[in-house]
From TrEMBL:
This is Leucine-rich repeat-containing protein 41. Residues 277-291 have a biased composition (Basic residues). Residues 244-271 have a biased composition (Low complexity). Residues 157-298 are annotated as: Disordered. It comes from Gorilla gorilla gorilla (Western lowland gorilla). The gene is LRRC41. Keywords: Leucine-rich repeat, Phosphoprotein, Repeat, Ubl conjugation pathway. GO terms for cellular component: cytoplasm. InterPro entries: Leu_rpt_41, LRR_dom_sf. SMART domains: LRR_RI. Signal peptide: none annotated. Part of an E3 ubiquitin-protein ligase complex with Elongin BC (ELOB and ELOC), RBX1 and CUL5. Component of a probable ECS(LRRC41) complex which contains CUL5, RNF7/RBX2, Elongin BC and LRRC41. Interacts with CUL5, RNF7, ELOB and ELOC. Probable substrate recognition component of an ECS (Elongin BC-CUL2/5-SOCS-box protein) E3 ubiquitin ligase complex which mediates the ubiquitination and subsequent proteasomal degradation of target proteins.
């Protein structure tokens, strides 16, 4: 099948892995079933035979395979998938027609609501289609409404069969909005957006706010009226889906926004470029709709369409942003300003426990939809938002997570958040998350670039809502694992210490690219760990300059509670290596609790490696069983001498030794002899690394 599993993937059963890949290829049409007489036998179904081995299914491009799976001839295949499938992935989605979305609706209903799918992941969707994105989100959250004219679900019982077809989830969340707009509507939307901006600049700041609803705006657009000012300022109305019941806990269904300049007070300014107004793809000329492609060239054709449709879309006029036209600036976090009801007209079914969004830009309407669903998504256990361009929408996300945390039965225990920019400095954002989710167990947060609040001199740098951050102490939380990736610039140690003090159950801490104003600040963090985080077992530092923090490093190595310490590319031996190495070895020899030490990328060299060998001497009380010395400029003769010293001391097998990307290719014979001797003492993991080519690559990038 010409497929190779990822090296990061741990395959426990190769037969099941093969059958899973075989199922995907047959479903997409990239394997010609007719070429093999056994596969095209009428008494045998390749999809049915392999479906029981499928644990994860990937849907790509224009939803290939969704229509085939819900077809009546494959009913048994879908029933088998409903019990075997656990993970559903979407990659590189394109715009799809109504028929494909209806098929996807039935597929998600069967696999999630009546099946065993617990994880939904979306990857690399540069311009998400709102109707399709909202469909996937709402179905994942457990909401179900039969599509207009769609067949009733035979698994939902007689009550479901007797219901009249209602509007789909996209309509419930966004009103009567069609998946696409024609050219006239896009032009009218762009005109209204520009007119609204110009009027807002001319109106006085104290002008009273008026309300405009999503429905009234769209009816004006559809009617093609010419009195734009009257369209922008209709009387306040309410918008509720038919049959929707009000409840005290549900958000109000009234769409509200201010048309004056005061309503244009944006959420705090961020250095992040805000998501552009949502665009729509044009259909390719001569095509009446997207069709599922089959055959060996399907994937390459879809990639061709994906690249050139995105490029051609630049010629379109930008469509209005929902947050500007429909509800002004969206000052508050109430999702009802976009006409987002409580979805109580929908039936509630089983929902997934893990949601992952990787490189899926979230527009204002998409972010509001997600936040609206999150506020009551009690079955969600793990949420990953990676490079979604949230910007100031992060405040709405925090509000929805706070509301979710207050729900009875909330199960959210893991949050992974990463982005290029954040309107809040990363430590203030961490404090806000921990304050909003005190029951969180795992928090991983990364911001690549500093926020504007890190530069107080930037004009127009507004602060976040007062309820998001505060000077009060963080209440005690249940955090067990904290991973933080910092942008450039010195970080305030007291803020990090405040998080650590409130995390008494912390067992694992990882700091990536953290910079402190002085070694004393770093020492303050370490002292806080020693006093308040007594359960800490694993500590990791990556890409940090610790050359001036040697006393702090010794302090860590003397900590008798830590079991694993990582100093990855921390420049440990850049200064005073002759004096520091003996002190480091002495500290490790007296530590009987440390089990693992990882020192990749610290230029240890042969001399440093031979000094570390003394840790395993007869007079040492060390119980070290894992040592990582990758990327440390170690040569074959030094490794051989290291192996001989271990043999001389007669130390038993001490576990794992990692030797990746060292200079062992300079003398292959000596390197093989050293590894042979070491394997009698420990499990050696190495590679065939070309150091000369790596050095050439390094010089070429200087």
């Amino acid at each position: 099948m010409k497929t190779r599993p990822s090296s990061l993937e741990s395959v426990t059963c190769w037969r099941a892995k093969f059958m899973e890949a075989f199922f995907s290829h047959v479903l997409r049409g990239t394997i010609d079933v007719s070429s093999d007489r056994r596969l095209c036998d009428q008494r045998f179904s390749p999809l049915l035979h392999s479906s029981r081995h499928v644990r994860q299914l990937t849907i790509c491009n224009m939803l290939q395979g969704a229509t085939e799976l819900v077809a009546e001839p494959n009913r048994r295949v879908l029933e088998t998938l409903a019990s075997s499938l656990h993970t559903l992935k979407f990659r590189h989605l394109l715009f799809s027609d109504v028929a494909a979305q209806q098929s996807l609706r039935q597929l998600l209903h069967q696999l999630i609501h009546h099946g065993a799918v617990s994880q939904v992941s979306l990857y690399s969707w540069p311009v998400p289609e709102s109707a399709l994105f909202i469909l996937i989100l709402t179905m994942s959250a457990g909401f179900w409404q039969p599509g207009p004219g769609g067949p009733p679900c035979r698994l939902c019982g007689e009550a479901s069969r007797g219901r009249a077809p209602s509007r789909d989830e996209g309509s419930l969340l966004l009103g009567s909005r069609r998946p696409r707009r024609d050219a006239a509507e896009r032009c009218a939307a762009a005109l209204m957006a520009s007119r609204r901006k110009s009027e807002a600049k001319q109106m006085p700041r104290a002008a009273p706010a008026t309300r405009v609803t999503r429905r009234s705006t769209q009816e004006s657009l559809t009617a093609g009226g010419t009195d734009l000012k009257r369209e922008l300022h209709p009387p306040a109305t309410s918008h509720e889906a038919p049959g929707t019941k009000r409840s005290p806990s549900a958000p109000a269904a009234t769409s509200s926004a201010s048309s004056s300049t005061s309503s244009y007070k944006r959420a705090p300014a961020s250095s992040a470029p805000q998501p552009k107004p949502l665009k729509r793809f044009k259909r390719a000329a001569g095509k009446k709709g997207a069709r599922t492609r089959q055959g060996p060239g399907a994937e390459s054709e879809d990639l061709y369409d994906f690249v050139f449709i995105v490029a051609g879309e630049k010629e379109d006029g930008e469509e209005m942003e929902i947050g500007e036209v429909a509800c002004g600036a969206l000052d508050g976090s109430d999702p009802s300003c976009l006409g987002l009801p409580a979805l109580e007209a929908s039936q509630r079914f089983r929902s997934i426990s893990t949601l992952e969004l990787f490189t899926v830009p979230l527009s204002t309407e998409a972010a509001l939809t997600l936040c609206h669903l999150l506020s009551s998504w009690v079955s969600l256990e793990s949420l990953t938002l990676s490079y979604n361009g949230l910007g100031s929408n992060i405040f709405r996300l925090l509000d929805s997570l706070r509301a979710l945390s207050g729900q009875a039965g909330c199960r959210l225990r893991a949050l992974h958040l990463s982005d290029l920019f954040s309107p809040l400095p990363i430590l203030e954002l961490t404090r806000a998350i921990v304050r909003a989710l005190p029951l969180l167990r795992v928090l991983s947060i990364r911001v690549d670039h500093p926020s504007q609040r890190d530069n107080p001199g930037v004009p127009g740098n507004a602060g976040p809502p007062s309820h998001i951050i505060g000077d009060e102490e963080i209440p005690e939380n249940c955090l067990e694992q904290l991973e933080m990736g910092f942008p450039r610039g010195a970080q305030p140690a007291p803020l990090l210490c405040s998080v650590l003090k409130a995390s008494g159950s912390l067992q694992q801490l990882s700091l990536d690219s953290a910079t402190f104003a002085s070694p004393q600040d770093f020492g303050l963090v370490l002292q806080t760990l020693k006093e308040y985080n007594l359960a800490l077992k694993r500590l990791s530092f990556h890409d940090m300059n610790l050359a001036d923090c040697q006393s702090e490093v010794l302090f860590l190595l003397q900590n008798l509670t830590l079991q694993e310490i990582t100093f990855s590319f921390c420049r440990l031996f850049e200064k005073r290596p002759a004096q520091f190495l003996p002190e480091m070895v002495a500290a490790m020899k007296g530590n009987s609790t440390l089990k693992g030490l990882r020192l990749p990328g610290n230029r240890l060299g042969n001399a440093g490696l031979l000094a570390l060998a003394d840790v395993f001497s007869e007079d040492s009380s060390s119980s070290l069983c894992q040592l990582d010395i990758s990327s440390n400029c170690i040569k074959p003769d030094g490794l051989l001498e290291f192996a001989k010293r271990l043999e001389r001391w007669g130390r038993g097998a001490f576990g794992h030794l990692r030797l990746f990307q060292n200079w062992l290719d300079q003398d292959a014979v000596t390197a093989r002899e050293a590894i042979r001797r070491l394997r009698a003492t420990c499990h050696v993991v190495s590679d065939s690394w070309d150091s000369s080519q790596a050095f050439a690559d390094y010089v070429s990038t200087m």
